[in-house]
Every structure is written in structure tokens, then in C-alpha cells.
Automatic annotation (TrEMBL), chains A, B:
GO MF annotations, alphabetized: DNA-binding transcription factor activity
Superkingdom of this protein's organism: Bacteria
Protein name as catalogued: MarR family transcriptional regulator
Domain spans labelled HTH marR-type: 10-141
DNA sequence: TATTGTTATACTCTATAACTATA
DNA sequence: TATAGTTATAGAGTATAACAATA
């Protein structure tokens, strides 16, 4: 017998967000499996491609992780030959770039993820998808989340 | 200098879902911190309260985790005196119930989470929140996610 | 002093695989 | 055979705290 989700959960936007996000993430993970990367790593690759020469700390901020965690991700992408560290704007920083292999593979990954994304929301009309994306963008980019904000994720 | 999110990311509903979900989850985590539980554990508590006597495997399915992972969560909730295992419908199964302390604490947790949830979507009108919840529900409960589905999370 | 990268360490959450005891 | 619980183990992802080099 299946479990009931009562009103206390269903009324929470955060609960629905989590469930929808998890479902889409699993779809994406499956689609990216042949490439051996997670959805988060694909995001990192796209950010590096679109911000060539960025440093690890900035990348981490964009991914909502701290620079130590960002380093780990970059290490993995570098080991796989997708990303390289070049000398940065000063002697402390690395400039991140995709390798040519990284650029090539990323193209195929994006094809796969676009297909998977469409499947994740295949029950919505094209207009509804637009509405959803716009509402989500407002929630995600809401600056004041009340409460004392001190650090950006934590560091 | 901040990092640019190009169109390749912004056009993906899954990307926006993940960002909005993460933001709301962090809000929830902060709100629940005084209670020492994560958002996922709150979900487990509500599901147990609303499905008294359910077993661990069913709980896991509702949480999209397998029975081994469900066990770990129940162990923690039991250690904290919020949940108890009683004899189940047959000798293999446990019947999960909230303790009286669990019921009491859950009430306060729900107050906190409702407030946090409202803050997470405070830039949306009440109507927009309803639209968002409805759209998310359809994405989350979409049954056919194409591709060969065999196991429910994995087991 | 502040910042970047780095390392070591630990924690949370999840999964897999195997075992047991039931059914 | 199939199912529920359990255990041991491993992996991914993140965090904290320190340190060195540089600004």
C-alpha cells in the first residue's frame, strides 16, 4: 500500500521543488551517464566554457559550493582531460579553460541534456514551461532570503 | 567579477529547478537548525505521522531512497526519540510511529518550515505560488520518464 | 591583512551486496 | 522464491580548518 502525502507536505512549495528537481536531476543523470559526468559537472563545464579564464573560487560561487569543494570538481574534470588550469591573472589564481576535447564532448553532452530536459517536462505545454522557468528564476535569484547572510555558501 | 550564466544553462528547466530547489532547501535547513533535523528528516517525520504503522521500505519509496538508506534515517530519528519501531503486520516488518515527543516537536518544526517556505517564495504573489506548486506537482509526479524504468530508485 | 589555492579530515547521504528471518 | 530488515562497505559531494604563497 502506497504512502499518503498529506496536506502539510503538498502545500509546501519547497517540498514540490525538491521532488520535481530530484526527478529532473535523475533524468539528467541518466542522460549523462554515457559521458561519465554528473549534472553538476556539466554545469561546471558550461560555466567554464562561457567564462574562459575564470578562477576556481568564482566557479565555486556560481555553483554554490566553497572553493575547497570547487577544487575537487576541477581536479576531476582535469583528470578526465576536459578542463585545464593555465596561469591566472596573478600568481595566486588559476585560469580555467576547456581543453579542445572538453569543448567537443560538451557539445554532445548538451545535446543529450536538452533532450532529457524536454522529457522531464514533457507533460507541460511549451507556454507552461516558459512560465515555470520564469517563476523558478525569480525564486532562485531572490537576493534577500531574510535572516542574517554573512557568507556566500560558507567558507 | 561575477560569472555569466549563458543561455545553454538558463534555458534548461532542470537547471532552474535545481537552483530554486537548492535555495529553498538552504532556507529550510536554516529554519530547522534549532531542531537538529534536515529537511529530508522533516519529510520523513510528516510521512510517518500521516501513515502510522508504515514500514521502512514504503517510507523509503516515498522518500525516493532505498530501504538501506531509509533504515539509516529511521535509526537516527529513533536515536533522537522522535520515532519508534513497533511490531509490524508480520514478523518481518516494523511499524513506524512517532513518539509523543516526536509529535510534539513536529508541530513546532512545521511552524518553522511554513514560515521559511513563505520566505523562500516571498517574491511571488499568492496566485503565482499556486501556479508554481501546480506545475511542479505535474513535473514531480510524471509517471513515464521515458527510458527503461525497472527499479523505483535502485535496490 | 585579505585572498587563492591547496591539503587533510570529517560528515551526510546514498548505493550495492550480502546475510537472516520470515512469508 | 520473494520480501523486510539488517549490516558492512564504498562512493559522491560537501564542509571546516589549517597552511603557503601572493597581493
Amino acid at each position: 500500500m502506497p504512502i499518503k502525502q498529506g496536506r502539510d507536505l503538498l502545500q509546501l512549495v519547497g517540498y514540490q521543488l525538491q521532488r520535481a528537481s530530484l526527478a529532473a536531476e535523475q533524468d539528467a543523470r541518466r542522460a549523462l551517464q554515457p559521458f561519465g559526468v554528473s549534472p553538476a559537472k556539466l554545469t561546471a563545464l558550461v560555466l567554464i566554457r562561457d567564462n574562459p579564464g575564470c578562477d576556481q573560487t568564482a566557479l565555486g560561487r556560481a555553483l554554490s559550493i566553497n572553493r575547497s569543494s570547487a577544487m575537487r570538481q576541477v581536479n576531476i574534470l582535469e583528470e578526465r582531460g576536459l578542463v585545464e588550469r593555465r596561469p591566472g591573472r596573478d600568481a595566486r589564481t588559476n585560469a580555467l579553460h576547456l581543453t579542445s576535447e572538453g569543448e567537443q564532448r560538451l557539445g554532445a553532452m548538451l545535446d543529450a541534456i536538452r533532450e532529457s530536459d524536454a522529457l522531464s517536462v514533457s507533460t507541460l505545454t511549451s507556454e507552461e514551461r516558459g512560465v515555470l522557468r520564469a517563476l523558478l528564476e525569480r525564486v532562485a535569484s531572490q537576493k534577500d532570503r531574510s535572516r542574517p547572510r554573512k557568507r556566500t555558501p560558507a567558507d
